[in-house]
Design brief:
With 210 residues, this protein is mainly alpha-helical. It has 7 helices and no strands. The protein has one domain. Helix 2 packs antiparallel against helix 4.
Length: 210
């Protein structure tokens, strides 16, 4: 717990330090630290996303064969599980991507620590651009961050089935949350979503070039 508090404190102090460099602009400090943190994590994020995309591509290609196995062995779960494992092993696939899971779990503490530090820094308030008080919600920030979040979902690819419904639900939940959060947190959220967009487009370009 002490190590966690120290990590959050270091990030918070980094935000305040960059704010001083930017003539006391707390909003600029939040954006600077968020940018640097996400930039440092971008190579790992791209690697995790590429592994997940490859896994998804294999599973999509094998879906007809998996469906045939389910129909053939619907009354024999043990045989179905055995045949499914054999098919996946032949194709070098697994039900779950180990790289994707470990990479996501590995990044999660950093994201949480960064969010906590931003929330603490934003509570100090202050003006930034059109925002009167970074400690209070701002609808413009909430709408922009929601738009970036939806764009990140689209750029990330994934199954197209029910995508419109998922985007709608995601947009509603995101704007509902951000409308109650400090504008400083919204700045962090929006910039993080932009990095997710860049990551998604990078993975798509790499996949097409293979």
């Amino acid at each position: 717990m002490l190590l966690w508090n120290q990590a959050v404190e270091i990030l918070r102090e980094s935000i305040l330090a960059y704010a001083q460099i930017c003539h006391g602009s707390l909003g600029a400090g939040i954006l600077a630290v968020t940018f640097l943190a996400r930039l440092a994590l971008l190579p790992l994020g791209v690697r995790v996303a590429r592994a997940s995309a490859r896994q998804q591509e294999i599973m999509t290609r094998l879906q007809p064969q998996l469906d045939a196995l389910k129909a053939r062995h619907r009354n024999n779960p043990a045989r179905l599980a055995e045949e499914t494992r054999r098919l996946l092993a032949q194709e070098g696939a697994t039900p779950f991507s180990g790289v994707g899971c470990l990479g996501t779990v590995g990044q999660l503490p950093i994201f949480i620590a960064l969010y906590s530090s931003v929330r603490q820094a934003a509570s100090l308030g202050g003006r930034f651009l059109w925002i009167r008080d970074l400690a209070k919600p701002d609808w413009v920030v909430a709408i922009m961050a929601t738009a970036f979040t939806c764009l990140a979902s689209v750029s990330g690819g994934g199954p197209s089935q029910n995508r419109s419904l998922l985007l709608t639900v995601s947009a509603v939940l995101t704007i509902a949350a951000l409308s109650k959060m400090a504008a400083g947190v919204g700045l962090y959220w929006g910039l993080s979503s932009l990095f997710s967009v860049a990551q998604g487009w990078t993975v798509q370009r790499l996949q097409r070039s293979m």
